[in-house]
Structures are given as C-alpha cells and as structure tokens.
Amino acid sequence: MILKKDIRAIGFDDKPFNKFQDKKSEVIGTVMRGNSLIEGFLKTEITVDGNDVTDKIIDLIKSSQFSNQIRVIFSDGITFAGFNVLDVFKVNEVLGIPIIVIIRREPNIERIKDVLKKLNKQKELELINRLPKAVSFNGIYYQNIGLTNKDSESLIKRFTLSAKTPEPIRISHLIGQMLAFNKSSGHA
C-alpha cells in the first residue's frame, strides 16, 4: 500500500527564526498526493529550543482532514526551532505512519550531541543515539523509521522533482521563508 503511485505524504520544515529574540517559531506541513498535487497545508507553533514539536506534530496530523490518508511523513531533519527535537519513534508509534528524515548534508552527530548535553536534554540525547545511521542517497542523507531503505529511496525519488529534497519539504521550506522574510528563495 505504501508504494501505491499517488499516496499522500506530508513534509515538515520550520520557519526561520531569530535565536536571540524569538521564543516561538512555526512548523509548516505540506500535504501532497504524488509529487505534483498539493492538497493542503498545516501549521503549528512551537517553542525555540523547547520540547513540544513531537506532540504538536502528532496533534496537527491527528486533527487534520488528512489524518487517515497520509502514508509517509518527510521531515527536514529532526531538530526544529533550534534544538526542539522531533521524537520520530513516538510519532511513528502513535500515528502508525513511517517517517523519512531528510538531511541535506552529512550530519555531524557529535556536534549535535555536544549541544544537547549543554542544553541538558538527556531524553533527546538518548533519542539521537537510537536513530539509524544516516544513509547517503541522491546527494542527500536520510534516516527512516518504519520503512526499509529500498522503500525509503523509492519514495524519496517519487516525491523529488527538481531539487534534492522531496517536494513536500521543499514547499514547506519556501512557505516558511515567505512567512519569515515576505519572500522565498528557490534554494530549498
């Protein structure tokens, strides 16, 4: 069922924020059927360097008209609004939807761990240690929860058009830029 041609996916990215001034930021979700039909957008507010992104994304999807139709979640990394870490295992368990975490550059796991230690985020540090190793594919890296690498790569290919990132993430990124700067760039 997950590999059906026109499955629905949602892609999440956060709105750029000023880490010295902003206490809150927004997470944008773009729902697409296949790689070219946008069906809707979802948005929620989260705390900068907080710990609420997981529950907010779960609630956002559960309360949406798309809740029973989304077959895969694409996430632009696992940190939002600074170091508000998405518990991909909890999202997968609660919603029963597989997740593909897209990472644009090879992740520096040790740097992330150092920051989490400094922020005294032990739970998030344990989560990072549980994540599967990032896999290089088509100029990006990904981690997956609830899917095989083969299925993940098939879905990444299917939802990617002209950029390196899947369209649901790319569009969420552009919307976040527009909300923050009143314009967006094509580099998503």
On the 0 to 100 scale, the average pLDDT is: 92
Low-pLDDT segments, ≥5 res: none
What is the assembly state of the chains in this entry?
A: single chain
Query: What structural category characterises the helix and strand content?
Result: alpha+beta
**Spatial ordering of strands, largest sheet:** 3-2-1-4-7-9-8
Tally the beta strands. 9
Please, could you describe this protein's structure?
α1 runs parallel beside α2 (88-95) and α3 packs antiparallel against α4. This protein has helices at residues 53-62, 88-95, 109-118, 122-130, 149-159, 167-181; strands at 8-14, 24-33, 37-47, 70-76, 79-80, 84-85, 99-103, 135-137, 140-145. It has a seven-stranded mixed sheet with strand order 3-2-1-4-7-9-8, with helices on both faces. The protein has a two-stranded antiparallel ribbon with strand order 5-6. It has six helices and nine strands, in the order βββαβββαβααββαα. It has one domain (8-181): 2-Layer Sandwich (archaeoglobus fulgidus dsm 4304 fold).
